[in-house]
Write a structure and sequence with these properties.
With 507 residues, this protein is of the alpha/beta class. 45% of the residues lie in helices and 11% in strands. The chain is built from 19 helices and eleven strands.
Length: 507
């Protein structure tokens, strides 16, 4: 079984390969000696090494004693260390007092202690990788194990090793100030005010300045609100119109379904007609005239079902390196898993996925957009304002709200037969993009038009000569409602591509 995150066991080294595992006992002695003669030395190395970093078991026990004394804010010298070893019951195993006194005899200062700690950390990491590869080989030879489980377990183990050993050091503020100044100057030179990846929606770009690097953006909504259509409209605006490379991971639809939706969006052809091929002459003409816009577009789609966070990390790194992808979209978060690691609950697993997505956005320095489901609480609240989603409605994990840099809700009042706002403006065929959390700016609503027959979101003032209707009032509720509550299964219900309902109903 893969070793779980956070374990502190000394790695079992496979010596059958005929090599001495990476280690340097003399440097271990020098480092421990420096810690015994310099009370401030521990703060220099405490984030670089831990007891298991040492190869010699005696050194592991001595460093553990030194670490315990520092945590208790007690003095550290050979006398206090020997007392701590006695308290822990490891005094005889270490060979004290002679061995501990000997550690200080050949050490004059702690001047090189940080360099020594880095060497030991690297050797420990090498031993961890050797142990990891041995476990992978053993599991791969076991024909009783599913190879997919072996691969996902290996990814999980490797992720734990990398996270436990890669430390981010502090940075003095001056270079960060220069970086901030350069970013402001670059933004000032951009007359459009967009510093990130443009969304294609004027009012949304005005608030966000585009999707920003290293941000995790959550787009959430109840079934039938059109969050997948909104995500695809964003992908179309960015990859097809702006030619900015985008990766779209669809855990729900296959690649053909995804592309069919894009064709409907780009060519202004109802989804049902694309499914059954019953296009009019005018629609065939629109298809021929517009399909070329999609060809060669830097849009990369992946429909791997049950995608794990570890698989996503591997694929995302390759896409960024090879295809220069500047934005990743995931539809949707709750369908992902964290295989290879054990969890006490689904909520705990979703929390891990959420944190991992934020970490991946920071690592790749690109925005990641993840779609998310909302709980049924929206349907149970009375009144017009009660139907507007809240951060507490995010399904399965409060960590999603905590990890996200921005949370956006897709809300269409018309779905709930709310046809006018408080000022008397018509809400037919309109959608509210509600920015509920925004670490870098304002939280407010943006109004977009929704072309149901083409599953397309657009700026409100954009005229569409081919739009023939807006979503009808009763079509959503008749197919989604069940005993007064919405069907919570996103795989069932209103979909203009399933051939069972009218063409003007969104997903």
């Amino acid at each position: 079984m893969p070793r779980q995150s956070g374990s502190k066991k000394t790695p079992v080294i496979d010596t059958s390969i005929g090599h001495v595992p990476p280690q340097d006992v003399e440097i271990e002695k020098a480092l421990l000696g420096a810690l015994l003669i310099d009370r401030d030395a521990f703060t220099v190395v405490s984030e670089l090494i831990s007891p298991e970093t040492f190869w010699d078991p005696r050194h592991q026990k001595i460093y553990n004693a030194i670490q315990t004394l520092n945590i208790k804010e007690l003095p550290v010298d050979y006398l206090t260390v020997m007392d701590e070893l006695k308290r822990e019951g490891t005094y005889e195993e270490v060979g004290a007092p002679a061995y501990i006194i000997g550690l200080t005899e050949n050490v004059m200062s702690s001047a090189h202690i940080e360099h020594h700690a880095s060497i030991l950390r690297d050797k420990y990491m090498a031993r961890e990788l050797i142990s990891f590869s041995s476990r992978v080989a053993t599991n791969a030879f076991d024909e009783g194990q599913d190879i997919k489980d072996v691969m996902q377990g290996a990814e999980a183990d490797l992720f734990v090793i990398s996270q436990n050993n890669l430390k981010q050091d502090y940075t003095q503020i001056d270079p960060v100030l220069k970086q901030a100044r350069d970013a402001i100057q670059k933004a000032a030179a951009n007359t459009g005010g967009i510093t990130g990846v443009p969304t294609g929606y004027r009012d949304l770009d005005h608030i966000t300045a585009g999707w920003q690097r290293s941000d995790l953006i959550i787009i959430a909504g109840r079934p039938a609100m059109g969050k997948t259509s909104f995500a695809l409209s964003l992908a179309k605006n960015i990859a097809i119109d702006e030619k900015i490379p985008v990766a779209f991971f669809s855990l729900e639809m296959n690649n053909l379904q995804l592309v069919n939706r894009l064709i409907s969006n780009v060519c202004s052809i109802p989804g049902g007609k694309i499914l059954n091929g019953q296009l009019t002459d005018d629609e065939w003409k629109r298809f021929d005239n517009n399909i070329g816009k999609m060809q060669g577009a830097p849009l990369y789609v992946d429909d791997t079902a049950g995608l794990s966070i570890f698989e996503l990390r591997t694929k995302a790194r390759r896409l960024v390196k090879e295809k220069k992808v500047e934005l990743i979209m995931i539809d949707y978060l709750q369908l992902m898993n964290a295989s290879g690691t054990k969890f006490n609950s689904r909520q705990e697993e979703v929390s891990t996925i959420s944190r991992s997505l934020k970490g991946l956005a920071k690592e790749l320095d690109i925005p990641i957009i993840a779609l998310s489901q909302l709980s049924r609480a929206v349907e149970q609240r009375p009144g017009e304002q009660g139907k507007v989603p809240q951060l507490s409605d995010l399904r399965e994990s409060g960590a999603i709200e905590q990890d996200a840099d921005m949370v956006i809700f897709v809300h269409r009042p018309e779905y709930y037969h709310i046809l006018e706002d408080s000022q008397g403006n018509s809400l037919k065929g309109m959608a509210q993009i509600c920015i509920a959390k925004h670490r870098k700016g304002a939280t407010k609503d943006v109004t977009l038009s929704f072309k149901g027959e083409f599953t397309r979101f657009a700026n409100p003032d954009e005229y569409d000569e081919y739009a023939t209707s807006s979503p009808t009032e009763g079509s959503f509720r008749s197919s989604r409602m069940n005993g007064g509550a919405l069907n919570d299964d996103p795989l069932q219900g209103d979909d203009p591509f399933n051939g069972n309902i009218s063409n003007d109903v969104p997903y």
